[in-house]
Amino acid sequence: MYRLSKMRFGFPIGLFLMLFLDGSLSQVFSSQMFGVPSVMISHLVVLWLVCGVLFEENMTIPLVKWAVVVGIIFDLYYTGIFGVYIFVFPLVVYVTRQLVKYISPNFLSGLLIYFIDITIVEALSFLASRVVHMTSMSGSAFLVNTLAPTLALNLALFVVLYFPIRGVYNWLK
């Protein structure tokens, strides 16, 4: 079913569009998003992957493969640590698929799942940065200055973009 649908081409195009929108949002709103001491990081790629799991229903999309590909590109283009997002994005897909088994996908459960996924992405990114000594921020400073504003931004983006993304997925099916 996936091979015969518009989803075959539409999903990767949307994924790479979200990848570059992440960077564009960060560039355009850098003074608001990266103030001292708070930092807000947009994760539109994670939003697209989570929505892929929420909206795939009876169509199996090769999300893990695309998560690895976009993770490689994300690492090469945006971060200084090669290998973090190669593992984090497929982990997000796995965790989301496990949660969808127990929670029926709708707007509010999607918001909860996205909250969990953003927390995982940010925590693992912070831990990787600590391991390679790219940051000396304490855990409590990370929670207050990075995780909380990032969650606020991304949950607001989820609320605004959920229904348009659902419309795109329905159109692609």
Describe the protein's architecture and organization.
By secondary structure, the protein is mainly α. The chain has one domain. The longest helix has 34 residues. The radius of gyration is 16 Å and the shape is globular. It starts with 6 loop residues before the first helix and ends with a helix. 29% of the residues are buried. It comes from Levilactobacillus tujiorum. Belongs to the MreD family. It is a multi-pass membrane protein.
- Cα-based radius of gyration, to the nearest Å: 16 Å
Kindly report how far apart the N and C termini lie.
9 Å
As for the number of domains, it is: 1
One letter per element, helices H and strands E, the order comes to: HHHHHHH
Fraction in beta strands: under 5%
Q: Sheet with the most strands? A: none
Structural class computed from helices and strand pairing: mainly alpha
Q: What are the main properties of this structure?
A:
173 residues; single chain; mainly alpha
Write the topology of this structure.
Elements: H1 7-28, H2 30-33, H3 44-55, H4 63-78, H5 84-102, H6 107-131, H7 139-172
Helix pairs in contact: 1-3, 1-4, 3-5, 3-6, 3-7, 4-5, 5-6, 6-7
Compact description:
With 173 residues, the protein is mostly helical. Helix content is 76%, strand content 0%. The model has no long low-confidence stretch (mean pLDDT 89).
